Amino acid sequence: MSKFWSPFVKDLVPYVPGEQPKLAKLVKLNTNENPYGPSPKAIAAMQAELNDSLRLYPDPNAERLKQAVADYYAVRLDQVFVGNGSDEVLAHAFHGLFQHDKPLLFPDISYSFYPVYCGLYGIRSEVIALDEQFQIRVEDYARPNGGIIFPNPNAPTGCLLALEAVEQLLKANPDSVVLVDEAYIDFGGATAISLVDQYPNLLVTQTLSKSRSLAGLRVGLAVGHPDLIEALERIKNSFNSYPLDRVAIAGAAAAFDDREYFERTCQQVIESREVTVVGLQALGFEVLPSAANFVFARHPHKDAATLAAGLREQGVIVRHFKQARIAQFLRISIGAPEQNQALLDALASL
Ligand SMILES: *Cc1c(COP(=O)(O)O)cnc(C)c1O
After folding, report:
1. Structural domains for the chain
2. Does ligand 1 have an atom closer than 6 angstroms to the CB of 167?
């Protein structure tokens, strides 16, 4: 703490991202990155941007990328917002849509950035416990609120809430924004973007970090009613006019255009997930049903923190959360087949 700080800074509790170790040879299954590289067309598009044009500012509206997203989802340009990672898009949504008198609702087990943004923007929140099976129960959200946010599939559980249940939430809360954080939707869910024309209170966010393998590029997006998008644009244009650089706009747009590569690599991850689940179950693990590129698993007789430490000694890193309700779980990202096998082998030896 320093006398130079604005007073509220001393009370901030920042988000702690998963470790990015310097050692390259580790089997890194801790931050849900994609084991397959980005689309070769995205790489080529980014390389083509590395020239004299970098002396110029990028398009502040990133229209090339918004158009690619609009084409992909068959929505209009004014229904699309893009930002520097979906974390930034989420931050703008908290700032621009969730600062109300009534509390923001989100599940007790969900993305740990949500309480951080509440702290940053002074938003009151109420956490709603997942049910015994770690599922979101829609009825539990029938209470006064100034907004609802949840990841779908949920993180770190991997569990999917059916689109019909999402729609039930939208219908029951016409006076508040329901934000569906679809960071992992491409690994087994149906996107709620299909509902944006029907529900002006729906905002869907997605990221290119997971299914499009561009975590290092930092690109995320939101789709929703133009009025919601305008709130995000107002915040963005009061904060940073150019959150996406020229390389990011070109690479992200090309990644959206390359459907074939995207669909093929997602399918490979899904197949690897199913193999990994069977392998974990054979070792005695209970694995929650996952529609994401990670699984959430616990062993009935082995302490999760001890297992995570043992894995680490063998060069495999997974994520362990200390939060009481999930302290016996490991969150394991799905890697390439040989990485998943290395994980299973290491667990077998433990
Ligand atoms: C990874 C993740 C994000 C953030 O993605 P970025 O675009 O890399 O900032 C948002 N929400 C959830 C639930 C995530 O797991």
Report:
1. 7-37+260-349 (3.90.1150.10), 40-258 (3.40.640.10)
2. no
